[in-house]
Amino acid sequence: MAGDEVGADPAGKGAGLSDLLREYQRNSLVATLRACEKSLREAQEQLRGPLTEGILYRRVLNLPAGRRQSALDLVEECLALLAEIARGFDLRPAEEDLAQAIAASMTVCWANLGDAKSGKLRAYGEVDPRLGEALDPSLDRLERLALAIASLLQVPGRE
User: Fold this and answer.
1) What is the pLDDT of residue 16?
2) Among candidate residues 93, 50, 54, the one with its CA nearest the CA of residue 68
3) What is the rounded distance in angstroms from the CA atom of residue 71 to the CA atom of residue 158?
4) Contact by Cβ (8 Å): 120, 132
C-alpha cells in the first residue's frame, strides 16, 4: 500500500522521517534498535550453526529443520524491516571496538575467578584442607592470563 513503507513522507511536505525525532528521541530509538539487531544477529548465528562445543558447556538447538528455517526466515524479515527503519530515519551505525568488549569481559572473568578460590568456597561449606593447594594455583594462573588479555587489548595505539 502506497505510503506504508518506512520513510514515507507522513505529512506529504517532502520532509524525511529523520526530522520527526528530537536528539534524545533519536538516541533512545537507536539504542533500542541496536539492541534488537544484536539479539537478532545472535539468533541468526545460532540458528545457522554450528553451535559452540566448549570445555564445560555445550550449546544445542533442539529444533526440527522446518521450524529452524521458519525462525531464520522471521529473523531475516525482522532485520530487513530494521534496515528499512534505519534508512527511513537516517539512523547511522556506531562502531563498537571489540577489543574493549573483550577486555571488559576478561576483567569480569578475573574478578569471578578470585571468588572461586578455596577460601571463598567456605561460604558453601567446609573446605577440604587440600583444596587450596590443588585448585588455587591454577585459578591464580587463570587470573593472571585474564588480566594479561585485558591489558593487551586496552593498550592505546595497539597495532
Assistant:
1) 76
2) 50
3) 40
4) no
**What is the Cβ-side half-sphere exposure of residue 91, based on CA atoms within 13 angstroms?**
26
Contact 118, 140 (CB under 8 A): no
Instruction: Give the CA angle between residues 85, 69, 62 to the nearest 5°.
Output: 120
Residue entry with cell 577489543: 99
CB atoms within 10 A of CB 138: 10
Cα four-point dihedral sign 109, 114, 117, 120: negative
The pLDDT tens digits of the residues spanning 52-61 come to 889 999 988 9
Residues 110-157: tens digit of each pLDDT: 999 999 999 999 999 999 999 999 999 999 999 999 999 999 998 676
Give me the DSSP letters along 56-101.
S-B------HHHHHHHHHHHHHHHHHHHHHHHHTTPPP----HHHH
Distance CA 41, CA 33 (A): 12
Report d(CA 9, CA 15) in Å as an integer. Answer: 6
